[in-house]
Known about the structure:
- One of its GO terms (molecular function) is chorismate lyase activity.
- InterPro entries: Chorismate--pyruvate_lyase, Chorismate_lyase_/UTRA_dom_sf.
- Pfam families: Chor_lyase.
- Its EC number is 4.1.3.-.
- This is Chorismate--pyruvate lyase.
- The chain has 154 residues and is an alpha+beta fold.
- The chain has one domain (10-150): Chorismate lyase-like (Chorismate lyase), CATH 3.40.1410.10.
- It is built from four helices and eight strands, in the order E-H-H-E-H-E-E-H-E-E-E-E.
- Strands 1, 2, 3, 4, 5, 6, 7 and 8 form an eight-stranded antiparallel β-sheet that branches.
- A hairpin with a 2-residue loop joins strand 3 (69-78) and strand 4 (81-91).
- The longest helix has 8 residues, at 32-39.
- The protein is globular, with a radius of gyration of 15 Å.
- The mean pLDDT is 90.
Amino acid sequence: MFNTKNLIWTNLNQIRNIPDHILTWLDDYQSLTAKLKQKFNRFSVNILSQKKSIPHADEIELLDWHSQFVVREVELLGNDQVIVFARSIIPITDNTQRLLKIGSHPLGEMLFNDINIKRGQLQITHTHGTWGRRSIFTIGSTQVLVSEFFIKDS
Length: 154
């Protein structure tokens, strides 16, 4: 698994010198799932973990929520190779019950196919040669944090 603890995140508009081939993936407010399905003949989701857990302190602070959470960690595969590691922090509320039952379906499909779900600002991190991004999706009064780490140059 990818270590997501103690990363330094910066708003996308405050970062310079991101290589163009990386920036096209980081600076994209469309569905990553849809983009990967277009790029690869075979796309799949490998669930590494989905369980009640305590998120990292910076994740809880960002969500400003004091409740129980499900932490979902998955690999997004293109042509059977891991392309993205994704970590989602999903508060357990009435607003998130459908998300918590998606199994091996991509979370992105649900988030981007509902016009009532709003996406917040992108934050970026770079650690050990890997670029990542995260943003908050608002579902009703609930905030869901989705972080995506690009394991391979896509």
